[in-house]
Amino acid sequence: MTSTASDVLDELAAIRVLPVVVIDDPAHAVPLAEALLAGGVACAEITLRTPRALEALEAMSTVPGFLVGAGTVLSERQAEESVALGARFLVSPGASTRVIRSAAALGVACVPGVSTATEVMAARDEGLRTLKLFPAAQLGGVAMISALRGPFGDVEFVPSGGIGIDNAASFAVDGVASVSTSWIAPRSEIRPDRFDAVTERARRFRHEVAR
Ligand code: 3PG
Questions:
Q1: How many CA atoms lie within 13 A of 167 on its CB side?
Q2: N or C end of the chain, less CB within 10 A?
Q3: What are 95-124's pLDDT values in tens digits?
Q4: Which fold has domain 5-209?
């Protein structure tokens, strides 16, 4: 059964943690997904910032029970390529109408980045209610989420940027769908001898944001 964009957003919210990963070698994609799964985190956002990111995405999309999406999606072309290779959701640092509409046309979930009330309104106008708050820590973290939730009580945020194990727990609040971080699998730790450490970090981070 094919899941809808809304099902995917529900799944991401149930997982509560969204690891942001920068993969240089596609051979690391499957073992990385397995390491995350072992730590109880069944999803990842592969950023399109490396030459072989799409190959990594394609490989990771074959892992059963694992939800993979593309991050740093800046163009319609990247949206189309990612979805063709298995991305189930698209994340952007900002709210590009073009990317949002591509995702809708492709039938996948889109989590665009916002950092102001005006951007929240623009994304709401496109029908979206789950938005990435970026860069979350720099914007004031949970205080910013609480301020935005005043006028936008129907919006759920995925805070991202500057979140690690030390401040993760502050995001275990209403209005946070999931917490995004590169802390679980930093680029330098995505290598065979560090996958156990990734599993342990996934467990620890998940525990911090559990409600
Ligand atoms: C990013 O775009 O890299 C994400 O927002 C993750 O940010 P972080 O590296 O500060 O966790």
A1: 16
A2: N
A3: 999 999 999 999 999 999 999 999 999 999
A4: TIM Barrel (3.20.20)
The per-residue pLDDT for 3 is: 81
- Going by alpha carbons, the residue nearest to atom 4 of ligand 1 is 161
Asked whether 157 and 17 are in contact (CB, 8 A), the reply is: no
pTM: 0.96
Atom 5 (ligand 1) nearest CA: 161
How many angstroms separate the CA atoms of 115 and 16, rounded?
21
Of the candidates 190, 206, 189, which has an alpha carbon nearest to the alpha carbon of residue 30?
190
Residue of 45, 58, 156, 189 marked active site: 45
Residue 10 pLDDT grade (very low, low, confident, very high; cuts 50, 70, 90): very high
Whole-angstrom distance, CA of residue 120 vs CA of residue 102: 18
Q: Two tokens at 126?
A: 């496109």
Tokens of 79: 């949206």
Annotated catalytic residue 132:
yes
Q: What pLDDT, on the 0 to 100 scale, is given for residue 206?
A: 97
Q: Which residue has the tokens 């129907």?
A: 154
- The beta strand positions in the chain, using DSSP E, are 17-21, 43-47, 67-71, 89-91, 109-111, 113-114, 130-133, 156-159, 179-181
Q: What is the pLDDT of residues 131-176, one digit of tens each?
A: 999 999 999 999 999 999 999 999 999 999 999 999 999 999 999 9
Residue 184, both tokens: 């679980």
